[in-house]
From TrEMBL:
One of its GO terms (biological process) is methylation. Residues 62-272 form the SET domain. This is SET domain-containing protein. Keywords: Methyltransferase, S-adenosyl-L-methionine, Transferase. One of its GO terms (molecular function) is protein-lysine N-methyltransferase activity. It comes from Selaginella moellendorffii. It holds the Pfam family Rubis-subs-bind. InterPro entries: Rubisco_LSMT_subst-bd, Rubisco_LSMT_subst-bd_sf, SET_dom, SET_dom_sf, SETD3_SETD6_MTase.
Length: 481
């Protein structure tokens, strides 16, 4: 494997090589240094050492070159043209670290036993990093960053302020609570372990190690486990069909590219699929602005005190749904199952159960449909109202030049979530329109659900309440002038 950039490769997109045949600097030194942080430059050196070390261990040559990119940290570029289907990475399993290594570890195995794989890997990372040069993995571990940009590591005030309204806030809080519990339990287990450096085992060190593992460990679907993969964890993300996976026959971790790359292009892999933007940010510390499959989750359940609830549970169980159940809601689309579930939850006459189908978008009866749509509308409204600012505010924020990284990603996330909610509400409103007023024999529009119309209006009013409140304040101000 080649790590030092040959002259022909120097200078492609964002590369900031500093060793060996140094490229002639085209930019003033200050600008050049801005392009790769000092930490990344050190990690780039470490990547060179790691490459040598891996080669000495018989690591096969890869068509990749580690480089530094101003906005993505380290990454990998192709050292030759790659065609769709070519393997950009092919790494024998003995060069990876997995739960198997954790389970066989002489010091941390018993503490990690029965715990989440990622917790085990975080413990492994902390212990092996603490051993420094005594660790057989030292050249690999030197390439790891000390922490990540995950909101899990933000100050609590930053989380509260920047993520208010977003689904990320509750997720971060839940995950931190669970991490704290895990940390306390681990501390208790490890306290009698003389080989473990307890003085270094603080909650913030554990959190940082966990966030590093969270952002770098690759889930290999065919092996059904997470792995730390040298070089695999230096590939940056771009949404595509290129996924790292385990090849059972070859016993290698492989990345087949799904498009053509020219020599010198940065090679990408697609990180975890099926993550909400909030989960993606928590896991990787950035957001994929190009991802068209962004989604949020809407949770629905049964009505408390419903005498038909036992029957409804059975029906749900049969189709593999739980109580409550989360459904993904995308920009421009939401699953029929979300509607059907809510329709079922609102049924008050068991005779209507026969009309429930999870395969098709079938209305049970108009009253039921009305309630269903209104409830979903109300849920979206409530979520939208929990943000402290509007989509326009976020768009203005994103135009500011002096934004910090955290302010930027938080505004991107809020905007993404609000767009999905607003879009879903438009879709629900379109479905509601014909139900709210259907033509009667006399030709007038009659509302078939006038008894529950008030509820609908109330939902609409709640949504405009902040604006009305603001207007009333402004009116008051004006009248005081
Ligand atoms: C598996 S590592 C990839 C290598 C990493 N860039 C490094 O310096 O070690 C994942 C991390 O890379 C960064 N990253 C990957 N793809 C990115 C992208 N498209 N935009 C911004 N950052 C990205 C994020 O910090 C993410 O947590």
């Amino acid at each position: 494997m080649e790590l030092l950039a040959p002259p022909s490769l120097v200078g492609f997109r964002g590369v900031a090589w500093k060793c060996g045949a140094k490229p002639r600097r085209l930019l003033p030194r200050t600008v050049w240094l801005c392009r790769a942080s000092i930490a990344d430059e050190e990690r780039l050196d470490a990547a060179r050492d790691m490459t040598k070390w891996l080669q000495e261990q018989g690591f096969p040559q890869q068509p990749l070159l580690v480089s530094s990119f101003e906005d993505k940290g380290l990454g990998c570029c192709a050292t030759r043209d790659l065609q769709a289907g070519d393997a950009a990475l092919s790494i024998p399993e003995n060069f990876t670290v997995t739960a198997v290594d954790v389970a066989n570890h002489p010091v941390i195995s018993s503490a990690a036993e029965g715990r989440d794989e990622l917790v085990g890997l975080a413990l492994w990372l902390m212990y092996e990093q603490e051993r420094s040069q005594d660790s057989p993995w030292y050249p690999y571990l030197k390439v790891f960053p000390a922490s990540t940009l995950s909101p899990l590591l933000w100050e609590q005030e930053e989380q509260e302020e920047l993520l208010r309204g977003s689904s990320a806030l509750a997720k971060v809080k839940d995950q931190l609570t669970s991490l704290r519990q895990t940390f306390d339990a681990l501390k208790d287990t490890l306290k009698d372990n003389k080989d473990f450096p307890m003085e270094k085992f603080t909650f913030s060190a554990f959190k940082a190690a966990f966030s590093v593992v969270l952002s770098r460990a690759v889930y290999l679907p065919s092996a059904e486990l997470f792995a730390l993969v040298p070089f695999g964890d230096l590939i940056n993300h771009e949404s595509s069909r290129s996924l790292l996976d385990y090849d059972i026959e070859e016993q290698k971790v492989k990345l087949a590219v799904d498009k053509r790359y020219k020599k010198g292009d940065q090679v990408f892999a697609s990180y975890a699929q099926n993550l909400t933007s909030a989960d993606f940010l928590i896991r990787y510390g950035f957001l994929d602005e190009s991802d068209e499959n962004d989604f949020i989750e809407i949770e629905v359940g049964l009505v408390s005190g419903d005498s038909l609830a036992p029957l409804k549970r059975e029906i749900l169980q049969e189709v593999g749904l739980t109580v409550p159940q989360k459904f993904p809601v995308y920009l421009n689309r939401f699953p029929t199952q979300l509607l059907t579930y809510t329709r079922l939850a609102r049924i008050q006459d068991s005779g209507l159960f026969a009309k429930i189908t999870f395969e098709k978008d079938l209305i049970v009866c108009q009253t039921n449909e009305y309630e269903t749509l209104m409830l979903l509308m109300a849920d979206c409204r409530t979520k939208l109202l929990s943000f402290s600012d509007t989509m326009e505010d976020d768009m203005q924020t994103l135009k500011r030049k002096n934004l910090s990284y955290k302010q930027r990603v938080a505004a991107q996330l809020r905007l993404k979530e609000k767009r999905i909610l607003t879009d879903t509400m438009s879709a629900l409103r379109n479905r509601l329109a014909p139900i709210r007023g259907i033509p009667t024999k006399s030709g007038n529009l009659k509302d078939p659900n006038s008894d529950i119309r008030e509820m609908f209006d109330m939902v609409e009013q709640v949504a405009s309440a902040p604006r009305k409140f603001l207007a009333s304040i402004l009116e008051h101000k004006d009248s005081n002038k």
